[in-house]
Specification:
mainly alpha; about 90 residues; about 10% strand; 3 strands; 4 helices
Length: about 90
């Protein structure tokens, strides 16, 4: 064994394993449901694009991506397809 190798043993009781599995299932379920949604919230749009809130606002203001803001809800939703089209349109071509 080299000086940088270590053996780490982690023991979890069955209840902890069950809680961990449930949390992982929740995360995967949320990710899967977001990837199938037509309209996504600001956080999901920023994550999909890998951008900040300010950059997302600039894209919204310039109409580079489709946005909806239902008056009775009061928050922005972004069209996932238009985001993917925006990304495709800006592919660096050799």
């Amino acid at each position: 064994m080299s000086e940088f190798e270590t053996n780490i043993k982690i023991s979890l009781d069955p209840e902890s394993v069950s809680k961990l599995a449930t949390k992982l299932a929740d995360i995967l379920r949320e990710h899967h449901s977001n990837s199938n949604k037509k309209w996504i919230n600001s956080q999901a749009a920023m994550e999909l694009l890998g951008i900040s809130k300010n950059t997302l606002q600039k894209l919204r203001d310039s109409h580079a991506i489709r946005v909806s803001k239902p008056p009775d809800i009061g928050i922005f939703y972004y069209d996932r397809d238009s985001i993917l089209e925006y990304l495709e349109k800006h592919v660096d071509k050799p």
